[in-house]
Structures are given as C-alpha cells and as structure tokens.
What we know:
Blueprint: E1 2-8, H1 12-23, E2 28-32, H2 38-41, E3 45-46, E4 49-50, E5 55-56, H3 60-78, E6 83-85, E7 88-91, H4 95-105, E8 132-135, E9 139-141, H5 143-156, E10 160-162, E11 170-173, E12 176-179, E13 182-189, E14 206-217, E15 226-228, E16 232-235, E17 240-244, H6 258-271, E18 277-289, E19 295-298, E20 305-309, H7 315-331
Parallel strand pairs: 1-2, 1-13, 2-10, 7-15, 13-20
Antiparallel strand pairs: 3-9, 4-5, 6-9, 7-8, 11-12, 12-13, 14-17, 14-18, 15-16, 16-17, 19-20
Amino acid sequence: MNYDYIIVGSGLASIMFAEQLRLHNKSFIVISNRSQQASVVASGLYNPVVLKRFTATWNAATHLESALPKYIELEQLLGLKLDYVLPIHRVFNSIKEQNNWFLACDKPVLTNFLNPEIIPNTNSAVKAPFGFGAVNFTGRIDTQLLIEAYREFLSKRNQFVEETFEYKDLIENSEGVEYHSLKAKHIVFTEGFGIHKNPYFKYLPLEGTKGELITIHSPTLKLESILKSSIFVIPMEEDRYLVGSTYEWTDKTNNPTQKAKTELLKKLERLIDCEFEVIDQRAGIRPTVVDRRPLVGQHPNHKNMYVLNGLGTRGVLVAPSLAKALYNSIEKNTSLSKEIDINRFA
C-alpha cells in the first residue's frame, strides 16, 4: 500500500498531525501498540497561565487560538463531548498571594487571562479562607475518550495498525520509506517517552517525568470550577473528581504507586473538608525536554523522517499548533521556530 505518510504512535500528537493530513487530503496510516500512556493519563487541562508563579505559558494566546477550534472540530467529527469549559480557581494561601495576583493582572500579557477580583469561598467543603483568583479560557479535554474514539475512527477507515513498530524493518529509498508492505513519502514519529527506543531520534534530550492521578467520588464536594493549589481538583460527571498530579523523575514505569497516592491524599485533605472515596489511580510518563520546549522537525540525516514530541504537561494546549507547524514545514517548506526545531540539538 502506498501512502503520503506513516505515523508511529497514537497519542495526542499523533491525532493532531493526522488531522492536518486528513484536512489536506493526504493519505496516511497510523501504527501503534498503545504502550505510551502520557496522553491517556493526562488531566486534559488547558490553561494559559503558570499558576505557581502567575506568568503566561509559552505562546499562550497563539496556542489557544489553534487549540479551542480544533477540539470543537473533533467533537463534530467524532460525535462526542470532549471539551468541558471550566474556570480555574487558584486558591490563595495568604494576603501576599492576593497582592501578587493583582500585580500579575496588570501585566499586558496576562490581562485577558486573569480576573482582577478576589472570589470569596462559599463552599464549606473547601478550605480557602483567602479566596480564589479566576483564570479565563480554561477547561478540560477528555483526552482518554478522544484517543480511544480517534483510534476507532481510524480503524473503521483501515488507517490504524495495532502492533509494535520494528525499527529494523524500516527501509529508506529514493521515494521515501518502506515498512513491511507499506510505502510512504514520509514517516512521522509521535511516540512520547517511547522515543528512547527509536534509533533515529533517541539522541534528543527527552526526559520522562512520571505523573500520577487519582479519581475520587464525593457527592458533597459540589465543585463548579477547577481548584488549583499544590494540586488540582477537576470536576467530572457523576460527582467524580480528577486529582493530581505528581512528578517523579526516576521511576519510568506506568505502574501506579502507593507513594504517589499518599502524597496526593495528604495535599487533598489540606484543601477539602468532606467525605470522599478513591475510585481509580493511574500513571504515565510525560515526554518532557531539558529546555521545556517541544521536539519538532526533520531528522538531520534521514530527510524523510520527522518527529513531533516533547509536548510535556501542556500537550492539550500546544499540540494543534505544533502539528500545523510541522505539516507546513514538510509540505510548504516553511521554517520552524528555533524554539521547537530539533536542529537546536543537532
């Protein structure tokens, strides 16, 4: 079979690049063994502000402009509810934090994102005597549902192969690449932390950061916004809440741990005062890069091979615009930003 593209991996980066190909009528097939869990276990939070320091995230306005319409398109394509628009309420722990919030609100880059009013706490189940600051243009994407539904969408179109990609069987030729019975002009690797097994791109400085989340059930919590303190608490359906996340730099497995659960519960009990039950725990390895910028671009020696990786904790927000940038680089020969181009590590 002949294609324009082979995509290796089936997480968020893969979906967004596949969408660029689909919208431009390019033929493609996706190969994945579903081993990488970062997108599946992600909170799905999109948020243009770093709430620990009250600063804007990298190119926040540009990424939002690309991301929000894309998730609307995917909802229409898949016939699913994916985007849950919710404000984030940053819990203040002191008068000093309130004052820092007011200072941040005056910064031009943050004016559109931060509400300058202090929101009083009226929920007796939440411990927030100093109130909250509200962030605009925030919400949650159901990434797990999106990934499962998009794989099913591709499967019905015979565009998804569930298997482990064997790098030794990849052959380059004058027209592109061959893999088993597949031929393509280009191949794009979107493997997340799995890049460490990729002989072509494992030289890139991607560090895996393990993150763990728990899901709780609490009929009395009654949150209508996302709470952010030392952890976040995200409302879901049927009185369920997603609580996370941890950061672990040495353990590179997808196995949930008691240590992370204990850490999350201690922080949660400092934030809420009501009964709850832990009903789920999950873990995955975030693909984070040493300079905290994504890995996008063409291999320096293998001209038909490309990478789209390193989306980190902001994957939901940045994936659509990065996929578009890579597509334009390949098909229109546009230059990638030096911040994201893998040539910075050549």
